[in-house]
Design brief:
Elements: E1 4-14, E2 17-26, E3 32-38, E4 47-53, H1 56-60, H2 68-82, E5 85-90, H3 93-96, H4 99-110, H5 115-121, H6 132-140, E6 145-149, H7 153-161, E7 165-170, E8 174-175, H8 181-191, E9 197-198
Parallel strand pairs: 4-5, 4-6, 6-7, 8-9
Antiparallel strand pairs: 1-2, 2-3, 3-5
């Protein structure tokens, strides 16, 4: 039996197009995750997919300290354009440390730390995310092969570990701004991300 359960499926019209929203509950943590589905994704062919961790500051408030909101918009547009794919929204705020701790990390960054140093100073790993629930959701949707929109090698390894085949990495690069330049460079230099920004 899977640790994730789909509780509801509803139509979700958005400014990017209409998606089918599959609402999942992780039975282990109680967290709620949403898979926005476009087209026939269970036909055995590789599926364009973005596994996106929640970022209230970037996704909702338009923060310039990260590229999360811009990545979300671009991924949804790309899935809509192709007419087939999944945008999986995971409740893993702040690379898994939670909203309040993410804001505490911001304060440490304002004092000179980078994003990795700030997480470590708060007693966390540089990335606390767990991709098992995401992998189980994708498998529940009938997906076996992914064209994954990411710059993060840990995400690729995490999903591969749970039996999904990543047949292609689709880069998702954003222009940098003065507020996120150091953050983007740190992700590349310290966390092994492929090029995360447009140059």
């Amino acid at each position: 039996m899977s640790d994730v359960v789909c509780e509801v499926i509803a139509q979700l019209p958005t400014k990017y197009g209409t998606f089918e929203a599959h609402g999942y509950v992780d039975q282990r943590s109680g967290e709620h995750h949403v898979a926005l589905v476009k087209g026939d994704i269970a036909d055995g062919e590789p599926v364009l997919c973005r596994v996106h961790s929640e970022c209230l500051t970037g996704d909702t408030f338009g923060s310039l300290r990260c590229d999360c909101g811009k990545q979300r918009s671009r991924a949804m547009r790309q899935i809509e354009k192709e007419g087939r794919g999944v945008f999986l929204y995971m409740r893993q705020e702040g690379r898994g440390i939670g909203l309040i701790n993410k804001l505490k990390a911001y304060v440490l960054q304002e004092q000179g730390m980078d994003t990795v140093e700030a997480n470590l100073a708060l007693g966390f790993k540089d990335d606390e995310r767990d991709y098992s629930a995401g992998a189980m959701i994708l498998q529940d949707l009938g997906i076996k092969k992914l064209r994954l929109m990411t710059n993060n090698p840990t995400k690729i390894d995490g999903l591969n570990e749970y039996g999904l085949e990543i047949v292609e990495r689709v880069p998702i690069q954003m222009p940098i701004n003065p507020f996120d330049k150091y953050y983007m460079q740190t992700k590349q230099k310290k966390m092994g991300h492929m090029t995360t920004y447009e140059v």
